[in-house]
Amino acid sequence: MPRKGGKAVRGVAAVAVTLALALSATACGDDGSNSGSEGSGKGKIVFWDNNGGPRTAIWKQIIAKFEKKYPDIEVEYVPIPIADVQSKYDTAIQGGGDSLPDVGGVGTAYLANLVAQDALEPVTDRVQDSSLGGKLVKNMVDSVRSVGGDDKEMFSVPTSANQGTLWYRTDLFQAKGLDAPTSWDNFYKAAEELTDKGGNKFGFTLRGGAGSIAQAMEMMYAQSGITTFWDGDKTTLNDPRNVAALERYVGLYKKVTPAADLNNDFTKMVAQFDQGDIGMLQHNLGSYTDHLKAFGKDKIAGVPMPPSADGQPRTIVSNPVDGLGLFKASENKAAAWKFIEFAASAEMNSLWNQDVGAIPANVDAADDAWIKQAPPTKAALESLSDPRTKVVQLPYYLPDWNTISKADNEPNFQKVLLGKMTAKEFCDKVADELNKAQADWKQHH
Q1: 13 versus 186: which is more confidently predicted?
Q2: Which of 142, 206, 365, 369 is the most exposed place for a label (fewest CB within 10 A)?
């Protein structure tokens, strides 16, 4: 991992701590800026969980283990519902930052927003000079750097990622003598052969409602083999190879998918697949437990998105990476960092990801028993860790990204499915909006 300024402080821990304290003293001074301080490394820290509720039990378990190891640090746990977390951070920042936590869960979907408001402490050197140095999955680190808008600096410590997966019914494939959908030819062949409209059986189900464009982009870039989202200042979204891939993908609608797919969000799509009459589904690892409940381990499998052609590297679209941010206004950064380092350690990171069903960021968790027993997660981790894999970094840093890639254009995607708009017209419209948003962002950065 590149290091800012080539600093090489290793060896005696006390030297690192002393240097950190000295740096913070000169950085903060008494200029009235709210840049916090290292603090004593003891006392209370406040932690905001960015998915409070579903993740509360596992975080409380990790906090209990942390407080046992560090009895002189107390962690105040604050669960924030996932839908409220970005506005909660924004409100605290606008109020001067005093009510911000010391540590907070920070996903890449809103990381750029926090970096733009100067709310987060860079953690590149802290990671490198800690037990986490060299231990984080490179593609997750790259995503965090890319989203922060500064390829050299990390503004959060990645803890987990999701990944696009092709789920398929092994029993239905075996009954028809079909090969697993590990290539696009196999995928399209299976989609046709598993469809029996008269018997209400379909080869595939897709997402035509909320979240449809994210899924379409995963299918497009995986098939086209295009490795970057930007070519200079222009997006590759409407590259002819991506347009052709989208045409092939939307061509599945109603031929080998249910007509109801037009209004599917992910819950409807997953529920429809789990009823049992559909051969394949493209979603992420998050639905694995639902499929296991529906079919049992022997009738379901999941593979990473196939490469564009045999022998080519996989081109996978970046899924949001979850992480832990150290807030600049913290008056006890030394203790806060201990908590981040502990939570991102191999043992705790593995425990957390096993609970939530995601890919651990700590490479030392890769051989843990639960991953070996969850083949789709193992395959996803291996593909993400493969140095040949190309991750197409989506521009989460653009303030207009969510509006352009969701609300504004999902109705247009439905028009493409219905044949009222061409794939090229759709891609050109979205690309034009993205190019303008990128130009605007560059002007201000």
Answers
A1: 186
A2: 369
